[in-house]
Amino acid sequence: MTDFQLRNTPLLSRVGADRSDHLRTDIDAAIAGWAEAAVLRVDGRGQVLIADGKVVLGETAPLGDTPPHDAVFLGRLEDGRHVWAIRAPLAPPEDGADAQVLDIRRTGVLFDDVSAHLVSSATALLNWHDAARFSSVDGAPTQPSKGGWSRVNPVTGHEEFPRIDPAVICLVHDDADRVVLARQRNWPDRMFSLLAGFVEAGESFETCVSREIAEEVGLAVRDVRYLGSQPWPFPRSLMVGFHAVADPDQPFSFNDGEIAEAAWFTRDEVRAALGVGDWSTAAASASKLLLPGSISIAREIIESWAERD
């Protein structure tokens, strides 16, 4: 079987800050750094501000002497400053730098490793808190704990932790020069990507790959191989990447109604599509194929396969 690896770490999997998880259980020490800490604001649409290739981090003074009740502790920067995140309207940089609003689901490489790390963690945590204000056990109101890394029922003491929904994403190829790409029903014409789906209870990643591909496009696959993973906090997913082999003589069948069309594309066709950009930049081009943006692990998987000789 033709094998390949990811060329680069997926963008949202990059690590650029110290999570300092020991401070989550020593919350007094975490709060002690509040006065000099940096604050990442994430608005209600999951957007942040970016300036000069970095996420904008504000000061704590406008927020009071201690972290707000719903602030989440993200860790420490290289200079030792603590970083917290809050759900709040975006505020211009204090230094007056030009900044732009960034929705990381729709934008490519615009920030450094530290920013990717902070934004990914903050988005995942804040999304979880928005949806976890009541206990999954008895419906009782819960309170943030451990710097935002858990929620506790103040009466019973029952503790709940951030939920992550694992999903697989797979590049299906013919063990030679062709790959399957598919378009969901709600996507514009020409917009194609890899096949993906959520892992079910009692199911392994590899079994999920086989099931999802059979359900979505009717293909039986073999030689399922792991490639890498990436957090996808929209709202709380973890994308686990694979590649697998299928026989191109099999007919497509769209069994679950999610996929509108699928096709086999050659390596040259994929390389040409990669060359014109991504969904956000190539829509006006004449390319018959538009591919995901760089923020997605799908793009990294496709590029890694396409670059093989």
From TrEMBL:
GO terms for molecular function: metal ion binding; NADH pyrophosphatase activity; RNA NAD-cap (NMN-forming) hydrolase activity. Its EC number is 3.6.1.22. Keywords: Hydrolase, Magnesium, Manganese, Metal-binding, NAD. GO terms for cellular component: cytosol. Its cofactor is Zn(2+); Mg(2+). The keyword Cytoplasm does not apply. SUPFAM superfamilies: Nudix. It comes from the Bacteria. Pfam families: NUDIX (PF00293), NUDIX-like (PF09296), Zn_ribbon_NUD (PF09297). GO terms for biological process: NAD+ catabolic process; NADP+ catabolic process. It is an enzyme of class 3 (hydrolase). It catalyses: a 5'-end NAD(+)-phospho-ribonucleoside in mRNA + H2O = a 5'-end phospho-adenosine-phospho-ribonucleoside in mRNA + beta-nicotinamide D-ribonucleotide + 2 H(+). The keyword Metal-binding applies. Residues 162-291 form the Nudix hydrolase domain. Gene3D superfamilies: 3.90.79.20, Nucleoside Triphosphate Pyrophosphohydrolase. NCBIfam families: PRK00241.1. Belongs to the Nudix hydrolase family. NudC subfamily. This is NAD(+) diphosphatase. It comes from Mycolicibacterium chitae. The lineage of its organism: Bacteria, Bacillati, Actinomycetota, Actinomycetes, Mycobacteriales.
